[in-house]
Amino acid sequence: MTRKHRIPRGLDYLTTIRSDQYIELSPELLGDGMERFSEMVTLVGVPLNPPLGNTDTVMERLADAEIGKEVRTRLVAFANMSAAPIRLEGKGKLAGYYDLYVTLSPTVESTGKTIYHSEDGEHGTFKSIATFWPLFELRPLGGGPSIFVDTGQVPVPGFPMSIGSAGGHWSLRPPASNAVRSFRAEPFFYHGEIIITAKRAGQESARIPMLGGGETIAKCAKLQAQFVSESQPALLSRVNLGITKPFANLELE
Fold first, then answer.
1. Is residue 206 part of a domain?
2. Which pTM value belongs to this model?
3. Mean pLDDT of the residues in the chain
């Protein structure tokens, strides 16, 4: 298999432009006196800690990929937070305003598969699907302990979420000189926006049915992650996701 006919095993570094995610937390989950939380929440990317430029998402290709054939993938890091606080309503003890942080479940891996199509051996498009198991952290604005909801252990309507992307563009050449790249494989990059979506079909839990949400329950736009400049390794002016849950993102050994 020649260089022009394979996509090397390695890590893809992405940053979130905007993500709209439907989230439903049932009264059974929130406790006595609480009302159902059912909203489309706008999320923004948070640079990973330690930072890799403005990277907030890292996906691993688990093998060299042949053009036109499936290759297994997994999410190894993910960090988003709500663009504005969310409000849990009711008369229970959890009522109030929270910043919502989203990382990866520490108990179940988010795995998937991708097929790469080539235009000239150096560029092409791809189609991917994945199963997304998040860990939600709700941090009260007034201080106090966070609420953690691991969808790998606790049934939450809509999760695990089946997400997919089609028509995104890849290239063996970086879109910019400061593109974040993998040091474990030959460089591989994404050009332009990558749109990731999830439909409601098949996203209802048998234990806690999804009651709200439209047909499209998630839509996210991502770009190839970049360093701010060749001399400045990260965009540290952005809010950074604090490490409050050990191993919230599954790290590569």
1. yes
2. 0.88
3. 86
